[in-house]
Amino acid sequence: MSQLRITHVVNASPVVPCFFRDAPDGLEIEYLSVALFDDPEADLLGALPGVVDFVARARRREGRVLIHCYAGQSRSVALAAGCLLAANSALSADEAIEAVRRARPVAHPNLGFRRQLEMFAGGSRGAAGDADEEGGVPGPA
């Protein structure tokens, strides 16, 4: 974590502990826990505003954010794609997922999360839209 200079972590799994909360190397990592199950019926849209805000605040402070779940294929991918959508109103849900997939080839959000990302992209982005103009959520690195 210190080599990657991670300052903020989003834990998208209700069963995976926050391993680095009390890091022995003195890292001060800010956590956001999101109890999201990898279920097509899970409320991704309800989780996105808090995650988008957390990531945007971290980025404004030049922080580096790790978003993880259990397998790194569905929940974390969907949340990262949602952050990209919030940062760039020109992106479609498929483009945001593909951007995450370029960095994480196993990325494969479940069908319910894909549909919710399409809804988010279609107008539910709320006040989080285009956060990059204010130094918020960046595009993929």
UniProtKB/TrEMBL annotation:
Q: Where is the signal peptide?
A: none
Q: Which CDD domains match?
A: DSP
Q: Which residues form the Tyrosine-protein phosphatase domain?
A: 1-126
Record's Gene Ontology CC terms? cytoplasm
One MF annotation (Gene Ontology) recorded for this entry: JUN kinase phosphatase activity
Cite the Tyrosine specific protein phosphatases domain residue spans from the record.
52-105
Q: What is this protein called?
A: Protein-tyrosine-phosphatase
Species of origin: Prototheca wickerhamii
